[in-house]
Amino acid sequence: MLIEFSVGNYKSFMETMSFSMVAARLTAKDKRLDKHNVFKVGNDLSLLKSAAIYGANAGGKSNFIAAIRFMKNFVLNSSKDTQANERIPVEPFRLSTETANKPSFFEMVFLIDGRRYRYGFEVTPERVVAEWLLHVPTIREAKLFERRDGKFEVMNGFREGKELKDKTRDNALFLSVVAQFNGAISQQLLKWFRNLGLISGLNDAGLRMYTIQMLDEKRYQDEILHLVRRLDVGIDDIQMRKSPLTDSSVADISTAPDQIQAIFRGLIAELNKLSKNSGMERIDVLTAHRKFDAHGESTAVEFFDIDNNESEGTKKVFSIAGPLVDTLKKGNVLIVDELDARLHPLITRAIIGLFNFSETNPQNAQLIFATHDTNLLSKDMFRRDQIWFAEKDRFGATHLYSLAEYKVRNDASFESDYIRGKYGAIPFVGDLSTLLRVSEGE
After folding, report:
1. What is residue 86's predicted lDDT score, i.e. its pLDDT?
2. Residue 180 and residue 101 in one domain
3. Total of domains in the chain
4. Per residue in 57-74, is it b (16+ CB within 10 Å) or e — as a string?
5. Is there a domain that residue 66 lies in?
6. Residue 252: which pLDDT band, with cuts at 50, 70 and 90?
7. Are residues 343 and 305 in the same domain?
8. Residue 442 pLDDT exceeds 60
9. Does residue 430 belong to any structural domain of this protein?
10. Do 311 and 343 reside in the same domain of the chain?
11. Which residues on adjacent β-strands are paired with residue 238?
12. Average pLDDT of the chain?
């Protein structure tokens, strides 16, 4: 479960900005939101099940998600031998002379099996400047290790790292190195980062393969099919058809000598045998639709190829169904950039409702998403602390803040006030009335 994420001096983030999933001390106008959108962890902590991030184009929403993606990837990959001579792919804030030679800052606070951890690091493209890990074993936060300017302090609570300080490269994370040597705590933390879902609502090719794999393995098959049926009216079933990865029809060899044709077909056969044995056969997704007669009676089922016969919205619904079900089943965290892209507002609303409703989210999975869909800005759907904004100042630096920081009347419309610019984070569009006369010198 995610509690807080902070980033500084990275892409459009100049100063350190923090995003929190901790429920603020407020009550929603609709008391059902306080019951369903929030869950308690112990006696002193309440977390949110979902959060939306709004902002103008180029306001920093995607950079916020990119920062989380960088932290995840660096934690999982920095200790690999293939990264030994590589520069750290971090991009500091470039619009200020003050940040040019300073490290970028990343910190995550999260829960694993009810225990709170705070892990972070500071890096430049050349080296890890600082790294720290703290936890809360009982009441107070305690240090497990700290690394700064090449010096390590490893506490007894992190004995698994005691003998591994000298094995840590300047461009690798100590946590990642210890996990490679099967450290119990470090492996547990890397597993949390591995399960942290990060997806794009614009490019879902990889998501589709994930959903197909889940269906092929019969993993959550009923739940995925149920979700697709409910979100996309008209689809009664989904079937998958396996076919050879390589087809001999991809090239016209009819004019080639018989010996060449025989060699070519032999190669195709071997490739298909290898692909079948390795599970790399091509899988086509077919959607089933009922066929009706003149009397409105269902007489048969017609199958459509999802790529050639279904809408872009239907393709996306299918692609994200697997990650959504997997996240809800396991109680993980899912972060989506442009969640609403290619989806009807009611479908987007239904997806968010899966996380906000206790019956469909018994494991308290969390959904964080960036969006432009102002239809979702409703007091009937979100508490104020679930709505965040990303806005750039005149120096090009992104600021991150929550609607909970504003005093809002009970009868106020979140959407109308946002469109009017009351909360900031909207584009300021100039006068376009003379656009077509610009080339004429006016």
Report:
1. 87
2. yes
3. 2
4. eebbbbbbbbbbbbbbeb
5. yes
6. low
7. no
8. no
9. no
10. no
11. 287
12. 90
Q: Are residues 260 and 224 in the same domain?
A: yes
Which two three-digit tokens encode residue 325?
Answer: 């079900």
CATH of the domain at 183: 3.40.50
Beta bridge partner(s), residue 282 = 243
Clarify whether residues 107 and 243 are in a common domain.
Answer: no
Rg (CA), the chain: 26
Neighbours of 339 (CB within 10 A): 26
Let me know: does 345 contact 351? Beta carbons within 8 Å: no
- Integer CA distances (angstroms), 244 to 263, 269, 271, 282, 306, in order: 18, 9, 9, 6, 18
Taking 90 as the threshold, does the pLDDT of residue 155 lie above it? yes
Both 184 and 241 in one domain: the answer is no
pTM given for the model? 0.88
Domain that holds residue 24: 2-196+332-419
Residue 47 shares a structural domain with residue 170 = yes
Q: Is the pLDDT of residue 409 over 90?
A: no
353 has pLDDT over 70: yes
Specify the residue for token string 């240090």: 143
CB 363 within 8 A of CB 227: no
Q: What are phi and psi of 159, to 5 degrees?
A: -60, -25
Q: How many helices (H) and strands (E) does the chain have?
A: 11, 18
Least confident of 60-74, 201-215, 319-333, 375-389: 201-215
Residue 314 has pLDDT above 80, yes or no: yes
At residue 280, the pLDDT reads: 58
**Contacts of 63 by beta carbon, 8 Å cutoff, 6+ apart:** 10, 11, 12, 13, 398
